């Protein structure tokens, strides 16, 4: 039976889709049968980030409405055999998602996969609610910035009170993933430190993903960033995948490379 | 780059202000979110009961719920008008 992981944040643009694609691909690279579902109905992007946008014929909403069978909508990744994608509709809106429909599709996917990764839309409305409602575990994505941290806190509150697990009186395991972390700006005292965010949100830290040009480059070509073995962000995501699987590796917090005195004297950057 | 910058430690940035503001804000927001939905109605009901006996403004009744791990305390704070201001409502 698959484990359902939601990637959520409250705030928009913090890196949920990048994270969902990276984590799903990372789990699949470890040999787990994994499917990524795009819950951002009307603003679909998982297909683009996964590079399968031209192969979408049927989507999640078609399956919910009974217009297509699940196997017709599942897209098999061409690079990682154990990975599948369930794209969403670009023309419908979030009201096309029903609790009953989402529950039915997740129940149908569960025996076929080891992991179901749900890419949540921003906000706390219907789409975001249904993306997290059936989850067994949550990854809360945040940036080291006030509004993102506040929204993450709100989302943690909702996961703890409004998810199905919470309603059934079960604990809702949550992890904090700090993304787009800019060590230079933290060093200059312009951005919150990892320790600050973690202390404020009080959720176990899954990893810290540095701000990194390779993320944009990977998205340009439709490749999840974990497939770029030179990318520091990809590396951070692969470590996070290990931690989801229970590996207790030390979390590397990006730091600014120290410049020597002579470099500083000459104004050279590292 | 001035020579001073080479030796100066990084200045206290705005991140500290961000952390402090968040700590204060979130402790309030969490308390509000955890308060049950019935509190406003309870506050109105208490106010109406008291109004049968004394005249009192809306502001004078405060209801607050503090939850601890093991128990919750419902705190009801009713501020009665002083003798000078006290007026009894007209007999029904
Ligand atoms: N570690 C990173 N380094 C640099 N850029 C990043 C990083 N993570 C994400 N981005 C960029 O940030 C932007 C938003 O990322 P993404 O689409 O994953 O966010 P999102 O939370 O899914 O957004 P939305 O709320 O709109 O669904 C993208 O342009 C992406 O390339
Ligand atoms: Mg997204």
Automatic annotation (TrEMBL), chain A:
Keywords on record: ATP-binding, Cell cycle, Cell division, Nucleotide-binding, Septation
Keyword ATP-binding among UniProt keywords: yes
Top-level taxon in the UniProt lineage: Bacteria
Assigned protein family: Belongs to the ParA family. MinD subfamily.
Signal peptide residue numbers: none
The keyword Nucleotide-binding appears for this protein: yes
Primary role: ATPase required for the correct placement of the division site. Cell division inhibitors MinC and MinD act in concert to form an inhibitor capable of blocking formation of the polar Z ring septums. Rapidly oscillates between the poles of the cell to destabilize FtsZ filaments that have formed before they mature into polar Z rings.
InterPro entries in the cross-refs: CobQ/CobB/MinD/ParA_Nub-bd_dom, MinD, MinD_FleN, P-loop_NTPase, ParA/MinD_ATPase
Name listed for the protein in its UniProt record: Septum site-determining protein MinD
PANTHER family in the record: SEPTUM SITE-DETERMINING PROTEIN MIND HOMOLOG, CHLOROPLASTIC (PTHR43384:SF6), SEPTUM SITE-DETERMINING PROTEIN MIND HOMOLOG, CHLOROPLASTIC-RELATED (PTHR43384)
Listed GO MF terms: ATP binding; ATP hydrolysis activity
Gene3D superfamilies according to UniProt: P-loop containing nucleotide triphosphate hydrolases (3.40.50.300)
Cellular component terms per the entry's GO annotation: cytoplasmic side of plasma membrane; cytosol
UniProtKB/TrEMBL annotation, chain B:
Transmembrane stretches, start-end: none
Reported function: Prevents the cell division inhibition by proteins MinC and MinD at internal division sites while permitting inhibition at polar sites. This ensures cell division at the proper site by restricting the formation of a division septum at the midpoint of the long axis of the cell.
Species lineage: Bacteria, Pseudomonadati, Pseudomonadota, Alphaproteobacteria, Rhodospirillales
Molecular function, one GO term: identical protein binding
Entry keywords, A to Z: Cell cycle, Cell division
GO biological process, alphabetically ordered: cell division; regulation of division septum assembly
InterPro entries associated with the record: MinE (IPR005527), MinE_sf (IPR036707)
Entry's family note: Belongs to the MinE family.
HAMAP family xref list: MinE
Domain of life: Bacteria
Protein name, entry field: Cell division topological specificity factor
